[in-house]
Amino acid sequence: MSLTAHIPSHRKPRRSAPKSALRAGVAGGVLSTIAVAGAAGPAQAEPVTQTIEMPTLTSGLSTAVAASAEATQQVALDLETQAQEDAAATSAAKAATKAKAEAVRKAEAKKKAEAAAKAKAEAALRASRSEARTTLSASSGATAVAFSSSSATGSAASVVSFVRAQVGDAYVSGGTGPNSWDCSGLVQAAFRTVGVDLPRVSQAQSTAGTQVSLSNLQPGDILYWGGAGSAYHVGVYVGGGQFVGAQNPSTGVVLRPLSYDPPSGAVRVL
Q1: Across the chain, what does the average pLDDT equal?
Q2: Which of 154, 231, 253, 267 could make a disulfide contact with 226, Cβ separation 3.0–4.6 Å?
Q3: Mean pLDDT along residues 7-20
Q4: What's the whole-model pTM score?
């Protein structure tokens, strides 16, 4: 036995020809397939690139944003304007309320002042009448004889006779006769009988002659009630402490003593 007979050979055993041929055919087919795929592959796998132009939105977007901003600003302006109008309306309402309250206050103050003035005038008139009554009462003893013994003469007698003749006639505001009179209408008509043309109203008649004291009256003197120049009633003194006057609708023309309604003063025309 040789020394090398047990040394294993490092060569691989040769494969059988049919298996080698088969493997070579398969390998060739695979390589052919890869070669064909390689040749056709790039043409099929290459991506198709196409440029698509998108519409430009910048202009439209800017317009929309601007419109939205303008609308927002307009709403803010409208709200501010409304707030200003509401504030002005509130201020005007407050001013109107204040003005109305001030007007009411002034009207009430004026009304109170007028009432106070009227009360003062009435009080003064009552005081004047009371003083006249006192004066007449105090002087009645000294002048009674003079009053009773006085007799009208001349023009004064005609005036006294006329007014006495009208006693019982009706009182009518604005009346000038012949059967109805007011106070100044009767006095004017009486003096017209002696050619004296007196003013028509009592205010003017109370200053038509010379002022005389109530303690020194003569028949035919004009008596007045109220102030000289602002008298509200007149009559004629007929002597004996009496007067004739157209008093009011309920009494008509009457003959009364001075104490019935003491006059404020007297004037002498004749």
Answers
A1: 79
A2: 231
A3: 52
A4: 0.48
Q: How large is the greatest C-alpha to C-alpha distance in the chain, in angstroms?
A: 219
**207 within domain boundaries:** yes
Check whether 162 has a pLDDT greater than 90: yes
Local structure of 268: helix, strand or coil: strand
Q: Which of 101, 104, 107, 147 is nearest to 258 (CA)?
A: 147
Average pLDDT over residues 75-88: 87
217 in Cβ contact with 237 (< 8 Å): yes
pLDDT digits (tens, 9 = 90+) for 226-270: 999 999 999 999 999 999 999 999 999 999 999 999 999 999 999
Residue among 183, 197, 190, 186 nearest 226 (CA): 183
201 Cβ partners below 8 Å, 6+ apart? 184
Question: Could you tell me the two tokens for 126?
Answer: 């009552």
Q: Could you tell me the CATH number of the domain that includes residue 219?
A: 3.90.1720.10
